[in-house]
Design brief:
alpha+beta, four-stranded antiparallel sheet, 2 helices, three-stranded antiparallel sheet
């Protein structure tokens, strides 16, 4: 699995939280400022932990696949949507380029416009006939702001 860039995502989250903190603490008492700082620190830490946790879970699922072959070239991600208004989804299509029925395990990375990793998910597309295509939906593990892009991190045919 290629390395993820959680540090830039954490820096962006920290910058956004700092700006929020600056707006929040204007004309507040020292006690209010301390509460706001604690709240921002907690939110920043949780955002970084969520990305790290999702990335680790995706890597763990891919590690379970035995005798798999790199099939990233067989898999494509469509544009993302938020059909339920909350979590980001993307249709993922696997096209079986072999002469045998195959299953695919795919890690999908959700990135912001700057390329920072926001979340990761794993999708299994099973029983793809030879020469055929089959789709599944990758869903983010949490609500993502903006319009993230889905990209294929890894795809294994087995």
């Amino acid at each position: 699995m290629k390395p993820t860039r959680t540090a830039p995502a954490a820096r962006i989250a920290a910058a956004a939280c700092t700006a929020l903190l600056a707006l929040t603490v204007t004309a507040c008492s020292d006690e209010d400022v301390d509460k706001a700082k604690d709240s921002v620190a907690s939110a920043t830490a949780k955002a970084g932990e969520a990305v790290a946790s999702a990335t680790e879970a995706a890597a763990s699922e891919l590690a379970k696949v035995k005798d798999g072959v790199n099939a990233k070239g067989d898999v494509k991600a469509a544009d993302t949507t938020k059909p339920d208004g909350d979590r980001t989804t993307a249709e993922i299509t696997a096209t079986n380029s072999t002469d045998k029925k195959a299953d695919y395990t795919i890690s999908v990375n959700f990135r912001d416009g700057d390329g920072n990793l926001l979340d990761a998910a794993v999708l299994n597309i099973n029983g793809v006939d030879p020469g055929a295509a089959k789709s599944g939906t990758a869903r983010s593990n949490r609500s993502l702001s903006g319009t993230p892009k889905a990209e294929i991190g890894q795809a294994v045919r087995h």
